[in-house]
Every structure is written in structure tokens, then in C-alpha cells.
Design goal:
By secondary structure, this protein is of the alpha/beta class. The protein has a single domain, classed as P-loop containing nucleotide triphosphate hydrolases (Rossmann fold, 3-Layer(aba) Sandwich). About 40% of the residues lie in helices and about 25% in strands. The chain has nine helices and ten strands. A six-stranded mixed β-sheet has the order 6-7-8-3-9-10, with helices on both faces. It has a four-stranded antiparallel β-sheet with strand order 2-1-4-5, with helices on one face. A hairpin with a 2-residue loop joins strand 9 and strand 10. Helix 5 runs parallel beside helix 6. The protein binds adenosine-5'-triphosphate and magnesium ion. The site of adenosine-5'-triphosphate has 10 residues, from helix 1. This is Amino acid ABC transporter ATP-binding protein. Its main location: membrane. InterPro entries: AAA+_ATPase (IPR003593), ABC_ATPase_HisP-typ (IPR030679), ABC_transporter-like_ATP-bd (IPR003439), ABC_transporter-like_CS (IPR017871), MetN_ABC_transporter-like (IPR050086), P-loop_NTPase (IPR027417). It is a peripheral membrane protein.
Length: about 240
């Protein structure tokens, strides 16, 4: 599990996480919603050690992410992360993109890595695109490629940051379908999203971020349909209407 205890994070004098407490259970889908600049992306980056923290602890399966002796490369194999922008290598095919990290980081043989890559491309519905370069894929397909690349490392957790917000509306569904499929497979996920309907339907719990604090945390349907906090209510009114 992932335990986040009183985490504080500043950029210079700007404190963007002001004491975040959260724990994510195995198999849970936790959706993070909240206004621009509230600290959602920063928290994801702190969880996989891309950002330092100034206070508190983040513990992933017993490993303190920010302890001096933590091997971040080993830790990150557990934490697949997919961002809003696509980040595939343009000169490699879809298949080679997915096989790359298992070959380089996990030292898998070329044969094994390519076989597994094919399975992961099939899983995200890109089996027929294995030999295409990323530039030949649609935005939704590129995002699914990014998911396949992350899954190829067999992570225990998947972190998603606004993976559909750069997509044309008609491509959003295919990416969300992949997230739903992952949820059904039991993957533990933290999903930062502006898609409140997705959070309500597919999230187990929702955390509403507001200016560096978690203003409200609860079962997805309750937080979205019947928020307890006035600030959550106001935010949802803005995004839903
Ligand atoms: N590398 C950085 N250096 C300085 N300030 C940063 C950096 N990254 C983020 N910030 C600031 O931290 C605050 C939180 O940013 P963050 O990206 O976590 O917000 P967010 O909730 O993900 O917003 P959005 O919904 O717009 O993606 C913002 O005020 C942002 O300007
Ligand atoms: Mg963000």
C-alpha cells in the first residue's frame, strides 16, 4: 500500500502541499480532483520520487520514498506513471517502445521483452499497431501506448495524471476504457482527473484538493453527488455546469 503522512512540499516560498494525509489500499482506485494549481500533479511526482518533500513521509510497500538510502530506480519499477503528454520514443515502433524498459532496466532478453510487449499492446487494444511509429498513432492510441509501456514493467501501482485532457473528445473513451479494464484487473491506481463522471463511476474514493490540502475525502459517489464541504460543492458546480 501507499501511505502518505503529513506531506509538505514547497517550491521556494510557495507551499503547494500543506500536510497531505492519504493511504491507498491494494486494489483501490483513488481519484484526485481539484482546481488548477491545487497540488495534484505535485503529489504524484512526490510519490514516485520525482520531487523532494520538505516534511512528512511517503511509504510505498514499506519503503520510505524520500529516505536517503532508497533506490529510486527499484522503487519506480513498482510505480507506473502516465502523464498528459505523450512521451514515446519517436524513432522506435510501438512494440519496441514497450519492450525498451524491460530490456534495459530488467535485462530481459530481446525475445522475451518483445513477446511481453506484444501482450501489453494487445491488452490496450493496439495489437494491430505494433510496427507503427508513435507519429502514426492517434492521440488516444499514443496514450494507450504510454499505458502499455508503463504496464510492461509490471508495476504494483499506476499513477495517471490527466491522461485524457489533451485528447479530442472522441478519443477520450478508448483511454478511459483501458483504465476501467485495469481497475477490473485489480490494479491499484491513483488517477488525477478533471473527468468528474469518470471519478464517480470508476473511483472507489475521491479526494478533493484545494490549495494544497485535501478538503474532502470519501466514497466516490458520495463526494461527487453529495459533497459535505462547501468548497467541494462550489468546485463541482463550476465543472459540472
Ligand atoms: N517545478 C515547479 N517549480 C515551481 N513551482 C511549481 C513547480 N511545479 C508546480 N509548481 C507550482 O505548484 C503549484 C501546484 O502545481 P500542480 O502542478 O501540482 O497543480 P495541479 O493541481 O496539478 O494543477 P492542474 O490541475 O492545473 O494540473 C502551482 O502553483 C504550480 O505553479
Ligand atoms: Mg496537474
Amino acid at each position: 500500500m501507499i501511505e502518505i503522512e503529513n506531506v509538505r512540499k514547497s517550491f521556494g516560498t510557495l507551499e503547494v502541499l500543506k500536510g497531505i494525509n492519504l493511504s491507498i489500499e491494494k486494489g483501490e482506485v483513488l481519484c484526485l480532483i481539484g482546481g488548477s494549481g491545487s497540488g495534484k500533479s505535485t503529489l504524484l511526482q512526490c510519490i514516485n520520487g520525482l520531487q523532494s518533500i520538505q516534511g512528512g513521509n511517503i511509504i510505498v510497500d514499506g519503503t520510505n520514498v524520500h529516505a536517503r538510502d532508497t533506490n529510486l530506480n527499484t522503487l519506480r519499477q513498482k510505480l507506473g506513471i502516465v502523464f498528459q503528454q505523450y512521451n514515446a520514443f519517436p524513432h522506435l515502433t510501438a512494440l519496441e517502445n514497450v519492450a525498451l524498459a524491460p530490456r534495459v532496466v530488467k535485462k530481459q532478453s530481446r525475445r522475451d521483452a518483445l513477446d511481453l510487449a506484444r501482450e501489453h499492446l494487445d491488452y490496450v487494444g493496439l495489437g494491430s499497431k505494433a510496427d507503427m511509429k508513435p507519429s502514426g498513432l492517434s492521440g488516444g492510441q499514443q496514450q494507450r501506448l504510454a499505458i502499455a509501456r508503463a504496464l510492461a514493467m509490471k508495476p504494483a501501482y499506476m499513477l495517471f495524471d490527466e491522461v485524457t485532457s489533451a485528447l479530442d473528445p472522441e478519443l477520450v473513451g478508448e483511454v478511459l476504457d483501458t483504465l476501467r479494464k485495469l481497475k477490473e484487473s485489480g490494479m491499484t491506481m491513483i488517477v488525477v482527473t478533471h473527468d468528474v463522471a469518470f471519478a464517480r463511476e470508476s473511483g472507489d474514493r475521491v479526494a478533493f484538493f484545494d490549495q494544497g490540502v485535501i478538503c474532502e475525502l470519501g466514497p466516490a459517489r458520495q463526494v461527487i453527488n453529495d459533497p459535505k464541504e462547501e468548497r467541494t460543492r462550489q468546485f463541482l458546480q463550476r465543472v459540472l455546469h
